[in-house]
Write a structure and sequence with these properties.
The structure holds two protein chains of two kinds. By secondary structure, chain A is mainly alpha-helical. Chain A contains 13 helices and no strands. Classes of the chains: A mainly alpha, B mainly alpha. Chain B: Keywords: Cell membrane, Membrane, Transmembrane, Transmembrane helix, Transport.
């Protein structure tokens, strides 16, 4: 629910003449200043400490206990027992696999769709203004409403999607209820609701692409495709990088949309790790075991993210030299 | 880039139309369903424009389904979250933008880490803590959690606005002998106002749209927020309640839509683009 794109807000620029001032501040004024800074920060730090950092540490600890929410709750330290059990838990790994497929598909498809739309909106076309405003609506909708809208669309009996297919003589499908179509169907919904935000970020990125380079290349006879590949795409790389990594993480950790669309069904075909963990914690009431699942998920995200960061870093360096 | 090739141009318009249909049709369908009579929905006729406009779904959604009470709950939770978050993040964002050193590094690190974290990991211990404090299944507990979860983004957004205020202005104030907090009140705060309003609005939308934390923390139906109540409606699908369900969904979207409309310029300029995500 709370998210940010680090690239989208300007870094606070420290003025060039700042260095001597800072040195001075660290001297005589530093104690008074530190007290001042503390006073400014405490009101925000307190809730973060109490309701984020402490639960975070507790959560990691819970993963090593047999804590439950049952009638006779237990809370004993059991070491690695949860993790040993987790290794053999095929249902968890299946949900993990589904989560990875889901997050990667959503991130890549959203990027491609949003890139196309951003390029169109950046071109000199009519209807641009209308499209821009209309395209924002899916973004503003509560995820629960998005899920409701798409349940209506996918409805096997009264849904417009099957009716449209029927018009062309194609037989309808129970999109959210069929084993083979459920996951693709929920991916489409996530892409639909993710396009606006990514488009806006890409549009902002496109404004930064120098037009002179494009014009010069066009004069030299470079095709539009080549210009896109060699000028636009490299310039967009930081934005693309930010969008895909954030979309991947957000999707992997997402809950509401799929929970309301399918509750993880049919037959666990859309059981994302978050749903699985939620059910384990609050339906089966095995909080210790569920916390262990959460810890594994965090670890997975961190590993994937660092690998991606590292690859990007190396590419960036290679591009520089 | 201006393209003069008519074939390319035609292709561009076809693509744009395809996007418009993909993005816009589901919304039209929701509106259309919200205006269909139960008879028409049950007849399985699939038309975009209802035969007769059944405006009655809207009042029906409001009176039959506790929608008003849950809308009131959502409004209360969102407004209080917005006020508290804004009040406590303002000074911290200022410190984050203006002071260098460990504090700033720690703040930035936390903001970034909080984006990577699955809410499930926090909510399990949080649920237990709130239960111990007897704050689970209360509005107050939900608000506390919302404040904590919206803070990182709010801090990040606000510190960007603070950083955009030239330091010279503050230094000029300090020269004239004003204390830091006087400078803050008289110089920084007024300049920060547009940023504060935008940030507050985003916090409101985030709380208004939130589903997962409310699902875990709220059990009593009389405390349900709007998303929880709407989800309850879905159980009624297949019966005659589809029209009111769609009407309720439309109503739930209006506040966020209005706010996004107001912030549209800022959104499309991309400066605040990471704000809201499910």
């Amino acid at each position: 629910m709370t998210t940010l794109a680090p690239t989208s807000t300007p870094e606070p620029a420290s003025p060039p003449g700042d260095a001597p001032g800072r040195a001075k501040r660290q001297g005589a004024a530093s104690r008074a200043q530190r007290r001042e800074a503390l006073a400014l920060v405490v009101p925000a730090t307190l809730p973060i400490l109490v309701f984020s950092i402490i639960p975070l540490v507790t959560g990691i600890y819970l993963g090593f206990t047999n804590s439950t929410l049952k009638r006779n709750p237990t809370n004993d330290f059991t070491g690695l027992e949860n993790y040993q059990r987790l290794i053999g838990d095929t249902f968890f790994w299946e949900s993990f696999r589904i989560g990875l497929i889901w997050a990667a598909s959503v991130a890549v498809l959203t990027l491609l769709a949003a890139l196309g739309l951003a390029l169109l909106l950046n071109a000199d076309l009519r209807l641009k203004g209308v499209t821009r405003v209309l395209a924002l609506i899916p973004w503003a909708m509560p995820p629960v409403v998005v899920a409701i809208v798409w349940r209506l669309i996918y409805s096997p009996t009264a849904g417009p999607l099957n009716a449209g297919l029927g018009f062309f003589g194609i037989e309808g499908v129970n999109w959210l209820g069929d084993f083979s179509t459920a996951l693709p169907a929920v991916i489409v919904v996530a892409v639909w609701s993710g396009i606006p935000q990514s488009t806006v970020l890409l549009l902002a990125g496109l404004q930064q692409v120098p037009t002179e380079q494009h014009e010069a290349a066009a004069v030299d006879g470079a095709s539009a495709l080549r210009r896109f590949w060699h000028i636009t795409l490299p310039a967009l790389r930081p934005v693309i990088f930010a969008i895909t990594s954030l979309d991947f993480i957000w999707s992997f950790n997402s809950f509401g949309l799929v929970y309301v669309l399918t509750e993880g069904g049919p037959g666990g075909r859309t059981m994302l790790p978050m749903l699985f963990t939620y059910l384990e914690a609050f339906t089966n009431r095995n909080t210790g075991y569920a916390a262990a699942m959460g810890n594994v998920m965090v670890l997975a995200v961190v590993i994937v993210l660092s690998a991606y960061l590292f690859a990007q870093f190396r590419r960036g360096k290679a591009a520089q030299s | 880039m201006k393209t003069r090739n008519p074939v390319v141009r035609f292709g561009q318009y076809v693509a744009l139309a395809a996007y418009l249909i993909f993005l816009g049709f589901p919304l039209l369908w929701l509106l259309s369903t919200s205006l269909k009579s139960s008879g028409e929905i049950n007849s399985l006729a699939v038309n975009l424009i209802p035969d007769t406009f059944a405006w009655g779904n809207y009042p029906q959604a409001l009176e039959r389904q506790n929608l008003i009470r849950s809308a009131g709950n959502s409004l209360f939770v969102s407004v209080v979250t917005m006020v508290i978050t804004t009040l406590i993040s303002m000074p911290a964002a200022y410190a984050l933008a203006r002071f260098q050193g460990k504090l700033r590094a720690a703040g930035t690190a936390w903001i970034l880490i909080s984006q990577v974290f699955p809410a499930i990991l926090l909510i399990i211990p949080l649920f237990m803590v709130l239960r111990t404090l007897q704050l689970n299944d209360t509005m107050f507990g939900l608000i506390l959690v919302y404040v904590t979860f919206t803070l990182p983004f709010t801090l990040w957004m606000l510190q960007g606005y603070v950083a955009a205020i030239p330091r010279d202005l503050e230094e000029a104030g300090a020269m004239d002998g004003a204390k830091r907090f006087t400078v803050l009140r008289l110089i920084v705060f007024p300049l920060l106002m547009p940023g504060l309003v935008a940030t507050a609005m985003f916090t409101f939308v985030a709380a208004w749209n939130e589903f997962f934390l409310a699902l875990v923390l709220i059990q009593s139906p009389e405390l349900y927020t709007l998303p929880l109540t709407l989800r309850m409606f879905i159980g009624l699908e297949g019966q005659t309640a589809l029209g009111p369900l769609a009407a309720g969904a439309v109503l739930a979207t209006i506040p966020s839509l209005v706010i996004f409309g107001l912030l549209q310029k800022r959104l499309t300029s991309g400066s605040l683009a990471g704000a809201v995500k499910g």
